[in-house]
Design brief:
The complex is a heterodimer of chains A (about 230) and B (about 110). Chain A has about 230 residues and is an all-alpha fold. Chain A folds into two domains: about 170 residues, no CATH class; about 50 residues. Chain A contains ten helices and no strands. In chain A, helix 3 packs antiparallel against helix 4. Chain B has about 110 residues and is an all-alpha fold. Chain B has a domain of about 50 residues. In chain B, helix 3 runs antiparallel to helix 4. Classes of the chains: A mainly alpha (about 230), B mainly alpha (about 110). The interface between A and B is large, with 91 and 68 residues.
Amino acid sequence: MRISPDLRVAFLDSAPVGLGFVPIGLTYGVLVVQADLDWWWAGLSALLIYGGSFEFLLIGMVTATAPLTAIAAAAFMVNFRHVFYALSFPLHRIRSRAGKAYATFALSDEAYALATGEQARTWPGRRILWSQFCMHMYWVGGATAGALLGGFIPDSVQGLDFALTALFTVLALDALKDTRGDVPTPVLALGSALIALIFFPDQMLVAALALFAAALLGRHLITRRRPSRV
Amino acid sequence: MSETHFAIAAVLATAAVTWGLRALPFVALSTLRTGDTVDYLSTRMPAGVMIILVVYSLSDLPLPQPQSLVPLTALATTVGLHLWRGNALLSILGGTTVHVVLSSTVPAF
């Protein structure tokens, strides 16, 4: 079997994300079996949901048999940030309907960051799609392997979950480079995050993103008006 | 509903909500894509969203306690490595290794 050259390139494009996804996926799988859920549930949830931060929360909700409506409402709030990704994800470069459908399904935080980065500006649709597929499979593979190997990881090994923070940090630094020294953007983001953390600790993510979007929009309206007056 | 059926239903409910949030805005926003405001937001949004996700992933930091030095040291390692070499793989691996070594070896910090 010949491997498509697009897949090979996409594998390299997404490798840094895989390095973050595999250990976090392993951690997720370990937690699933520690919560007495079946090993295959780790793989199934990783495959069909593919939204890491909420999957960790879902383990607790499933073991507590929370109502399905409560689960759906929580998923809505935690994953609401994805609404903003439609603003700049280059979906128009993907031609086929099935491709578009998969691209929106597999639009994780990392897929968004990779596809909207400076380096991806010339990528054709297929390269974006294959990199999304690779990231999806890193996550599913990590989660399934973690659930199968769960019992063998010694308790003394701790702190693998930092891979998630490190991943977001790297993506933030790269995205900052793309804004070309626009200082107010990180200041507004950090301010929104801290205000949300203090005033809405239970809904920090949704509150921070809404505040940030509102602040950015406000700033745009003010700075756009100024030059026309002079 | 058996436990297994419930666990599968929970996955399906979450998957439907998540895909809806990811896909439906493309339909609603297709008329706005060329606007000047959308251009402005889309060049600045990624950096801000990632910064917010960093704070979110650190939001259970026990700040006044010395234990929070472990993730903060790891964070400094990742930032330092990334500014120095600009290699994502190295920065993530370096920071995570520091975090695993510190939190596994110095539990009674």
